[in-house]
Amino acid sequence: MAAGLTAPLVRRRLNVPAPVTIATAYAAPVALAVALPRTRARDVGVCLLQMWAYVAAYKMPADDLEAFERRVHVDYPVTVDRVLGLGITPTQRLQAAFARPGEARTYEKALVWTHWVWFAVPHTTVVWMLVRHPERFPRAAVLTYSVFNLGALIYWAVPTAPPWYAAQLGRFPEGPDPDRLPVRRMMLEEGQRFWKDNWGRLYDVLGGNPYAAMPSLHFGTSLMAARLLADAGPVEGAVGAAYAATLGVALVYLGEHYVVDLLAGAALAEGVRAAAPRLSPAARAAGRAIGSLQRRAAT
Asked: Which residues, listed in sequence order, are joined to residue 160 by a DSSP beta bridge?
């Protein structure tokens, strides 16, 4: 556990290879499960350590931005979204129709906050299952964090830039045609306005990899949360679906993701959900093995 907590913090200073750092970080939640008997507190701790490892894996590719930029994909999502948008990307269409340069409208601020709230939504859903539907908690945790981890693997393999980054590179040329307005990054504008001097520090904590757009884990994990809540009850499911739909609109409108990113995130979430029945015997076997180790460690 100590090694898993420490490795992401000292990896640069000690020049620890990325595979060693990631393997050590992901060993921490397993170590906690072996060290302590199962309780709600231990379950929460395992989830927190899993996310600690995920954040390390998510941010690590951006350590050397120059090398990473040589591999980043910028054009193909623009091309796909132009097809989906019948010649103009949906982000451009939405911003041209509803946004006004230099003006932050109330609904835009609401969409930004919908985006920011996401950082708590998947984990709050897992905690909700732990507290209100404990029999559903193991499945909810495994499915949710599988989406996170598989997404991190894709970010390593196929780094892809979001719309706001493509706009900075001139992929959305300016011109007199309102449909050709450059894509604005409204989250950045609102963050600087609302958080003022604290925005830079906050962004450094929550950001870390500007080329993690494909697939959209914002949308994929929110869709998974909606599906898990729907399994628990119709009211919970309606809340989850409403949030996921609103977030999808926000991500495209604000220039954070392409529509194709959302489709890929949805495909990832649904793929994990579809694969779960076939993989559940292996997961249960792993759980029994960890439980056996825990009992041996306790004696």
From this structure: 73, 212
The CA-atom distances, in angstroms, between 68 and each of 59, 103, 209 are 12, 34, 10
**Closest of 162, 153, 156, 160 to residue 186, by C-alpha:** 162
> What value, to the nearest 5°, has the Cα angle with vertex 281 and ends 276 and 287?
100
The tokens describing 175, both together, are: 């011109």
Please name the residues in contact with 167: beta carbons below 8 A apart, sequence gap of 6 or more: 182, 183, 184, 185, 255
CB 166 within 8 A of CB 74: yes
CB atoms within 10 A of CB 21: 22
Please name the residue ranges forming H helices in the chain: 2-14, 18-35, 40-59, 65-69, 75-84, 90-98, 106-117, 121-132, 137-157, 163-168, 186-195, 199-206, 217-232, 234-253, 259-298
Task: Name the token pair of 262.
Answer: 């959302």
What digits encode the pLDDT tens for the residues 103-144? 778 999 999 999 999 999 999 999 999 999 999 999 999 999
Say how far apart CA 133 and CA 136 lie, in whole Å: 5
Q: How far is CA 197 from the centre of its chain?
A: 25
Note the pTM of the prediction, 2 decimals: 0.91
- How far apart, in whole angstroms, are the C-alpha atoms of residue 258 and residue 254? 10
Alpha carbon distance 260, 263 (integer Å): 5
Chain-centroid distance, C-alpha 245:
16
Q: What is the pLDDT of residues 157-199, one digit of tens each?
A: 999 999 998 988 888 765 445 555 578 888 888 888 898 888 8
Amino acid making up residue 119: F
